[in-house]
Amino acid sequence: DAGVIQSPRHEVTEMGQEVTLRCKPISGHNSLFWYRQTMMRGLELLIYFNNNVPIDDSGMPEDRFSAKMPNASFSTLKIQPSEPRDSAVYFCASSPDREGSNQPQHFGDGTRLSIL
Amino acid sequence: AQSVTQLDSHVSVSEGTPVLLRCNYSSSYSPSLFWYVQHPNKGLQLLLKYTSAATLVKGINGFEAEFKKSETSFHLTKPSAHMSDAAEYFCVVTKYNFNKFYFGSGTKLNVKP
Q1: Any residues with CB less than 8 A from the CB of B54 and at least 6 apart, and which?
Q2: Contact residues, chain B to chain A, C-beta under 8 Å
Q3: Averaged pLDDT of chain B
Q4: A-chain residues within 8 Å CB-CB of B98?
Q5: Which tens digit of pLDDT belongs to each residue from A71-109?
Q6: What is the mean pLDDT of chain A?
Q7: The pLDDT value given to residue B31
């Protein structure tokens, strides 16, 4: 079975440019998570969706960041305008969210973003 | 509130010797606990999970962890390290029936030949 698919795997762009990261969750999973990983701060949850609805976006650093989930099989994380401090690895994860039990999250391989 | 403390940022072992990666948690409720492994340039892969069934949990690749409520610990062990175990390991706690994960800061495992 295909896992969580993220694209692109690597992105290098100049500051000020718009960046769009994409994620396809595992089919049938109804929770989707965006994380950022840096050496300084480790793994940070940015936002989490359940049934395509944003549930908790308290981790989104500022208004330059936005995330959407237009349908159950696709999500985007957008940074506009980008800044060098946004350089990090961004992970998408999904889980099946069965009521009454905590299901593990399944992670994509990440997008390594470098803002020059 | 939920939180996780991984007590060692780096652990180094020789191939064939036991591995112990330590994790302590705090939780206001009965927690669910997970261990994930991250190899370089890859995403996180689930090793094992505890969700209030047996306190000794067996995972993939020979790893296991024991939930000890009295010590609020969930240490990860493996009897014999393999070179391919070199990676970063994350302990995770979540409140039962909620999706939000709380990650530890990670432990980098180095395996010497």
Answers
A1: none
A2: 32, 34, 36, 41-46, 49, 51, 90, 94, 96-101, 103, 105-106
A3: 91
A4: 102
A5: 999 999 999 999 999 999 999 999 987 655 567 899 999
A6: 92
A7: 81
B41 contacts in chain A (CB < 8 Å) = 109-110, 112
The whole-number average pLDDT for the span B75-90 is: 97
DSSP string, chain A: ----EEE-SEEEE-TTS-EEEEEEPPTT--EEEEEEEETTTEEEEEEEEETTEEEE-TT--STTEEEEEEETTEEEEEESS--GGG-EEEEEEEE---TTSPPPPEE---EEEEE-
- Average pLDDT for residues B109-113, to the nearest whole number? 96
Whether B8 and B104 have beta carbons less than 8 Å apart is answered as: no
